[in-house]
Amino acid sequence: MAAGVTGGTIHLEIGGRLRQVSLERLDAGNRFRFTIDGRTLEVSAVRVGAGAWSFLLPDGSQYRVAVTGTAAAGFTAHLSSGDVAVGLTRRHSRRRADAPDASGPARVESPMPARVVRVLGTVGQRVRAGQGLVVVEAMKMENELRSPRDGVVADVLVGEGASVEAGAVLMIVE
Predict the structure, then answer these.
(1) Interatomic CA distance for residues 109 and 10, integer angstroms
(2) How many CB atoms lie within 10 A of CB 164?
(3) Do residues 86 and 12 make contact, with C-beta atoms less than 8 angstroms apart?
(4) Domain 106-173 annotated CATH 3.40.30.10
(5) Per-residue pLDDT tens for 99-126?
(6) Cβ contact 131:161 at 8 Å
(7) β 151-156/126-127 pair status
(8) What gap in Å lies between CA 74 and CA 59, rounded to an integer?
(9) Is CATH 2.40.128 the classification given to domain 6-89?
(10) CA-to-CA distance for 73 and 121, rounded, in angstroms?
(11) Distance, first Cα to last Cα, the chain
(12) Could you tell me if 11 and 91 are in contact, meaning their C-beta atoms sit under 8 angstroms apart?
């Protein structure tokens, strides 16, 4: 990810509480800006193992976080203060005026900059709402993107290994 590029916003359930989280890389090194529920914090982050990171905060405090699990089954963040359950979730909001109706094409979009790990849907395949269509990976975490409704896969716009930006359309379901 290039310096200054916004990493996107995701919704996580952390310890049973819904949180809006975004990440922005500030330079080519290890400086990041996290925004959690509107509160921003700049940190230095260094990978210290598979799924483990060390975070240095501006006040000099340091935290180590190890993450295990998958998007489908849920994650566990292992902190010195204890383990915290983390789940990727969707925030339900009112339908926007420009959103497709239930009978029109539905777009499956990447919620964040990511790498496509697996493409599960194929053109012409009949799918059900909630069925996994594409698996993307960001920050060493996999996220299975699901069909927004019952329908047929009309177009597959990515392949495995592709890098995608937040909001990129990956598939169309009609």
Answers:
(1) 12
(2) 20
(3) yes
(4) no
(5) 444 556 888 888 888 899 999 999 999 9
(6) no
(7) antiparallel
(8) 31
(9) yes
(10) 20
(11) 32
(12) yes
